[in-house]
Amino acid sequence: MKIDTDHIKLDSFLKAANLVASGGEAKIIIAEGAVRVNGETELRRGRKLRPGDRVEVAGECFVIE
Question: What is the rounded distance in angstroms from the CA atom of residue 29 to the CA atom of residue 9?
Fold first, then answer.
């Protein structure tokens, strides 16, 4: 996924990629440990993603560009 800024927060990324319908849903799946960033489980919804970061959700992998 391409971003136009130097970073995007994890919860905003999940919404922008249509992986969740709302910020509340993003909060839940992150808290459940269902999201991995660069191979590690990420529990912070405000985690800043930058170009080159890899996000894995529900068996799908996305690369921030």
Answer: 15
Kindly list the averaged pLDDT for each block of 10 residues, start to end, along the chain of length 65. 92 95 95 97 97 96 96
* Alpha-helix runs per DSSP H in the chain: 10-16, 23-31
Quote the pLDDT of residue 1: 84
Hunting for tokens 């191979």 — which residue is that? 39
* Angstrom distances, CA of residue 27 to CA of 5, 8, 60, 65: 22, 15, 18, 23
Specify burial of residue 65 (Cβ count, 10 A radius: 0-12, 13-18, 19+). exposed
